[in-house]
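Take one record.
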Amino acid sequence: FFAPFPYLWLPGPTRALAGVEMAIVYLVLPFFLFGIVYYRKKPQFWFLGLSCLSILWVLASVVTNMGTFHRFRYGFLMLLMGIAVGALLKFLQRRGWRFDNLPGPIQ
């Protein structure tokens, strides 16, 4: 699920780019847990989160080719990342950060 792992990042430029992408995922995805706290009363969160996690679970269990798995999981992983980034912004907003110049409201 979290591949490519750090020991696979160095051999070429595309793997280095994948490493940067996964480093961002590693840093942001823990805020998905804050999303569970912040959005727990919203059925949209549960529908999106559980459907993405279950599809990722099935893909990780069934797809044996890692390249294919990376391509298949990308959309579902980015939906989870969107929830995590929303939770990160909400977390920072509750800590006193102001986001007046963002294009939309943080709810």
